[in-house]
Amino acid sequence: MQQFSVYKMGPEINIGGIDLSFTNASLFMVISAAIILLFLFVGTKEKKIIPGKVQLIAEMFYTFVAKMISDTAGSKAKPYFPFIFSLFMFVLFCNMVGMLPYSFTVTSHIIVTLIMALFIFIAVTIIGFTKHGFKYLSIFVPSGVPAVLLPLITVIEIISYLSRPVSLSVRLFANMMAGHTMLKVFGGFVISLGLLGGWLPLSFSVALTGLEILVAFLQAYVFAILTCIYLNDALNLHH
Amino acid sequence: MTIPEDFKTRLKIAKSKIEKKLQSDSEKKGSFLGSAFKLGTELVAAVAVGTIIGFILDSWFDTKPWLIIIFFFLGTAAGILNVIKTANRMQEEE
Q: Is the ipTM of this complex over 0.85?
């Protein structure tokens, strides 16, 4: 579909055999990041006791993420707040910018979500090993398992651990792509049914747009909260 | 800058009200919806990862198709384990 196609913008950049050209996907990532920067800059410029609208929303985002981290990963995860906050804001704004007509949804491409998920996965693994050393491997060996079943359970636990980046990335990508495809399909029905029968799919489209905005927020939330949960497993080893 | 005393108490009351409200409804609803969206992919991803591992090991050791079959079932078990873990976490939050 046309809305998912990636095309090059401007000159072709090729460094060391790797194509680094600026694409429409890069453009929309830059736009999302710029909106976040601008919004947080305006929100924190005047620090009033009684906040204005923009400051209020900026503070809401801050407390939302701070509460999410302290609820799921405890106080040890405080140093990772900047990372999780940026991650949440980036995914949220990419999803939301993608809801605008004629825009491009960055998160509807699996390569984008997979890179983010793999980064989180590798970072969490490194954090786990630096904090606990080889004791971190004990997350693969649950306690209270009979010795006969232990090899089997360990293999299952390793597969379960390796499936984390896949489930994290596929969830975000699939939800975004499915939602946009559904909107497109219902939009197509409006045209093909014409002036007489087109009203029903049109009303569906309106309802779906609302649902999509909910999904856009929820997926950003789930992405961030799962990062917190994985971080919690790495920081607080309890088995 | 000084803050008048009655404003301070009013702020305190408003804050506690908001906190109570947050804890009671909206927050819980949000996390439940989030968990509901989470469960499905949790199962599928582990099956896929297990099968891919089996496929790679098969081409390494030249044992087609045995390892892919074994790892498919191990992946399914891992998927069910994932779902159980998530469900347990949901219950703890309650």
A: no
